[in-house]
Specification:
The protein has one helix and five strands. Strand 3 and strand 4 form a beta hairpin. By secondary structure, the protein is of the alpha+beta class. It has one domain. The longest helix has 11 residues. It has a three-stranded antiparallel β-sheet. A two-stranded antiparallel ribbon has the order 1-2.
Length: 72
């Protein structure tokens, strides 16, 4: 996410490469569909764990890359 002037996070995926089947959830090892870029590094999650951690991580995320639309 990029920060706007009022510090509201904005979703963007344009500068990140797409997630692949080789990207695995940091919690359970399933295929990752969400990448969270933090100041301290990247985290990747399956749809379930990304959704479960969204409220905690999205406010501090630099970028939130959500590719869960590939699941349908």
């Amino acid at each position: 996410m990029e920060q706007t002037e009022d510090t509201t996070p904005v979703e963007t995926t344009e500068e990140l490469k797409p997630l692949t089947a080789a990207d695995r959830c940091d919690v359970c090892g399933a295929q990752a569909f969400i990448r969270v870029v933090l100041a301290s590094g990247d985290l990747v999650f399956c749809g379930h764990h990304g959704t479960a951690n969204k409220d905690k991580l999205k406010p501090i995320a630099i970028t939130w890359q959500d590719e869960t639309d590939k699941l349908n």
